[in-house]
Automatic annotation (TrEMBL):
Name this polypeptide is given: Thioesterase/thiol ester dehydrase-isomerase
MaoC-like domain location: 172-276
A Pfam family reported for this protein in Swiss-Prot or TrEMBL: MFE-2_hydrat-2_N
GO BP term (any one): fatty acid beta-oxidation
GO cellular component terms attached to this protein's record: peroxisome
GO terms of molecular function: (3S)-3-hydroxyacyl-CoA dehydrogenase (NAD+) activity; 17-beta-hydroxysteroid dehydrogenase (NAD+) activity; enoyl-CoA hydratase activity; isomerase activity
UniProt domain Peroxisomal multifunctional enzyme type 2-like N-terminal: residue ranges: 19-155
InterPro entries, per the entry: HotDog_dom_sf, MaoC-like_dom, MFE-2_N
């Protein structure tokens, strides 16, 4: 597909992580004490929670906090207007797990390679930028994960770009109850803990950005809800085994505020076309208890 910005490659950057980073991530998304293989570095099956690579484009090789806005604004996309990241929200993320992530990058070199898949002008509401990010080990060229994501730049549309294709939807069944349900409570500190993984957007820490965007104050990272929902799916339907998930995706539908309780409902859909024996599609929805859906279009491939 061609269009403004399509194929634009962002500068490649090196990423790194330690066992401690994996422990913090697992704790911050709700892994529990009966999942010590995600939470205790001396466990004989110690593993990275599968979605950890989603953090690396924020973290890079940092050991300390960084200026989120400065980094986000560092590379404008050729052929399209320069968008203000102070008004950006996550749209949708899909990750494919291609190789198990090592529990530390120490002694190896990894990098993120990113390119633009599409830039879509939605008029007055804003602009959608769709990108692909792959985690690659330098030297071997092995690809560990592939993420396709969209960012929505609020109120930054109307520049004459293409509207974009229709999205593919994965609605849950309406004729039967979910096969599993999981509840994830949050607290006023949830986002303050999660941001220590490397996602330092001020929107999730201080009231001013959220007030300006109409949220009334800070909101929890959409990727917290996304990652904690993946944990719910893997724990309930995949035995908490990182080898038992192949794909995961969801659309960010509405904000979550600190203190909200998240409820995820999951439906087993059976073996999908082209899937290997033992794998099946799972569809899910996550909503705020007593409120709106916050993650829609949920789909995972689980064993």
């Amino acid at each position: 597909m061609s269009g403004p910005g399509v194929g634009f490659e962002f500068p490649t950057f090196e990423v790194s992580w330690l066992k401690r980073d994996l422990l913090l991530f697992a704790a911050s998304i709700g892994c529990t004490a009966d999942e010590l293989h995600f939470l205790y570095e001396l466990h004989p099956s110690f593993s990275a929670f599968p979605t950890y690579p989603i953090l690396l484009p924020f973290k890079h090789t940092d050991l300390d906090v960084i200026d989120f806005y400065a980094r986000s604004n560092s590379t404008p996309i050729a052929g399209v207007p320069k968008f203000d990241t102070r008004g950006v929200l996550d749209g949708e993320r899909r990750i494919e797990f291609l190789k198990p992530l090592p529990v530390s990058s120490e002694g190896r070199r990894f990098e993120i390679r990113s390119k633009v898949l599409g830039v879509y002008d939605k008029g007055k509401p804003g602009t959608v930028v769709e990108t692909e990010q792959v985690l690659v080990e330098k030297g071997t060229g092995d690809v560990f994960s592939r993420v396709v994501g969209s960012a929505f730049y609020v109120g930054q549309g109307g520049w004459g770009g293409p509207k974009g294709p229709k999205t593919i939807n994965f609605p849950p069944p309406t004729n039967r109850k979910p096969d599993a349900t999981h509840t994830t409570p949050t607290t006023p500190q949830t986002a303050l803990l999660y941001r220590l993984n490397g996602d330092y957007n001020p929107l999730h820490a201080t009231p001013e950005p959220g007030i300006k965007m109409g949220f009334g104050g800070p909101i929890i990272h959409g990727l917290f809800s996304w990652n904690s929902t993946c944990h719910a799916v893997l724990q309930r339907l995949g035995g908490s085994d990182p080898k038992n998930i192949k794909e995961f995706q969801a659309r960010f539908a509405s904000p979550v505020k600190p203190g909200d309780t998240l409820v995820t409902e999951m439906w087993r859909m059976g073996k999908g076309e082209g899937m290997a024996e033992g794998w099946e599609e799972v569809r899910f929805v996550t909503r705020v208890l007593g409120g709106k859906v916050c993650l829609s279009n949920g789909r995972a491939v689980v064993r």
